[in-house]
């Protein structure tokens, strides 16, 4: 299955060592172990451990209102994902 994983929270550097980043990578590893193809859309890929997924980093302009920024991030990533044709879209809940 071709899966799109959305992580719209700019506070999660996907390749980093924060607990949320480790959770994202663990979910990706579990899906990959079942031989699914994963594409991860995120506003912040970060540096460090490489997940078993193709990472697409979408630049999103920063804002002052954290909630509005999170909604804009999710919306932009979702729209980008729809253009890529996936069997399943999984969104990590954030904020």
Helix-strand pattern: EHEEHE
Domain count: the total is 1
The main sheet comes to: 4 strands, parallel
The chain-level mean pLDDT equals 85
- Global shape: globular
Cross-sheet strand order for the largest sheet: 3-2-1-4
Provide the helix percentage.
Answer: 25-40%
What does this structure look like?
- This protein is α/β, with parallel strands linked by helices and 95 residues long.
- It has one domain (8-91).
- Helix content is 35%, strand content 20%.
- The chain is built from 2 helices and 4 strands, in the order E-H-E-E-H-E.
- Strands 3-2-1-4 form a 4-stranded parallel beta sheet, sandwiched between helices.
- Helix 1 (19-33) links the parallel strand 1 (2-6) and strand 2.
- The longest helix is centred in the last third of the chain and has 18 residues, at 66-83.
What are the main properties of this structure?
2 helices, 95 residues
Topology overview:
Layout: E1 2-6, H1 19-33, E2 37-42, E3 54-57, H2 66-83, E4 88-91
Parallel strand pairs: 1-2, 1-4, 2-3
Summarize the structure.
This protein has 2 helices and 4 strands. It has 95 residues and is an alpha/beta fold.
